[in-house]
Amino acid sequence: MKRSDSPALPAYVRDSIAPSVRAALTEDVADGDITAGLIPADRQARATLITREPCVLCGRPWAEEVFRQLGGHVSLNWQADDGDALAADQVICELEGNARELLTGERNAMNFLQTLSGVATLARDYADAVAGKQITILDTRKTLPGLRAAQKYAVLTGGCHNHRIGLFDAFLIKENHISACGGISAAITRARELAPGKPLIVEVETLEELDEAIAAGPDQIMLDNFDDASRQAAYERAPAHIALELSGNISLDMLRVMPAQPRPVLVSSGALTKHVQAVDLSLRVMA
Predict the structure, then answer these.
(1) 203 is catalytic
(2) Which run of H or of E encompasses 23?
(3) Going by C-beta distance under 8 Å and a sequence separation of 6 or more, which residues neighbour residue 76?
(4) Among 26, 31, 97, 155, which residue has the fewest nearby CB atoms (within 10 Å)?
(5) Residues 115, 119, 122, 124, CA torsion sign
(6) How many CB atoms lie within 10 A of CB 195?
(7) CB burial class (10 A; 0-12, 13-18, 19+) of residue 38?
(8) How far apart are alpha carbons 104 and 42 in whole angstroms?
(9) What CA–CA distance (Å, rounded) separates 52 from 118?
(10) Smallest Cα–Cα separation from 40: which of 97, 95, 98?
(11) Which residue among the candidates 2, 22, 52, 107 is catalytic per the annotation?
(12) CA-to-CA distance for 39 and 37, rounded, in angstroms?
């Protein structure tokens, strides 16, 4: 089943692809693929890549970059786009070109595809679980080192949304920041002075902290491990212009049974990128 569009590549994602692939090839190929060296340099080959299980495809730009950096002598004929929902045993791509490059690049290309497709597949499950409930699912910074941008793109591909990208693009004032700053009000005041144009999110753990945060006027308040009663109270107290974010052990199963919310809310989940299980892919070469 095809999705209407795959997400456009944000600039920070596009700029990260070549360095990520270069790092992957450096650790894998180093000063040469000695096994591929057994094959005559001018040998040509064809291959078919399939998925062995249902998934949402993600990672085409990274796979293409792998073969570009290896010399550009392998062509990829894609049978599916990023964002497409695929059935088990469905063909993803047909490859043709220099046999050495094809074999050197196959595992690197598949590593990106299987990991990012795993994230996109889980994100699609989360997005489907909250359809029609006034809930927006966000990822977190709990990503694989070196693959932040790629995993954030995979979350978008699956139909969920990105939280902040890193420590530079938004304030997220949490318990330890609050303690070190001398309180919620002091932390928010200092943040507004330091970078008034940056989004400002503050975490609260009690309704008393919620009231203090509301008075200080952040853009978004994260309700950390609020129970149902406290959550309902927060919905009533917080003005509509302050976004509310639910956080803390909110599982996919919980989201499936969570009723429609009385106001738009955000739910952040580290599981989208932290608990990723790679999709089972298979590539068969035909010399």
Answers:
(1) yes
(2) helix 11-29
(3) 63, 64, 67, 93, 94, 95
(4) 31
(5) negative
(6) 13
(7) exposed
(8) 14
(9) 13
(10) 98
(11) 107
(12) 5
Residue from 59, 93, 57 nearest 75 by CA: 93
Q: 66-115, pLDDT tens digit by residue?
A: 999 999 999 999 999 999 999 999 999 999 999 999 999 999 999 999 99
Q: Given 81, 94, 96, 224, which residue is catalytic?
A: 224
133 a catalytic residue? no
Q: Is 2 a catalytic residue?
A: no
Q: Which of 174, 190, 192, 231 is catalytic?
A: 174
Burial of 4 (0-12, 13-18, 19+ CB in 10 A): exposed
Greatest Cα-to-Cα distance within the chain, rounded to the nearest angstrom? 72
Cα separation, 145 vs 160, whole angstroms: 21
Distance, CA of 86 to CA of 56 (rounded, Å): 6
Lateral strand order in the sheet of 74-78: 74-78, 91-98, 44-51, 281-286
Q: What span, in angstroms and rounded, lies between the C-alpha atoms of 206 and 223? A: 8
pLDDT in tens, 16-61: 999 999 999 999 999 999 999 999 999 999 999 999 999 999 999 9
175-208 pLDDT tens trace = 999 999 999 999 999 999 999 999 999 999 999 9
Q: Could you tell me which of 109, 122, 117 has the C-alpha nearest to residue 80?
A: 117
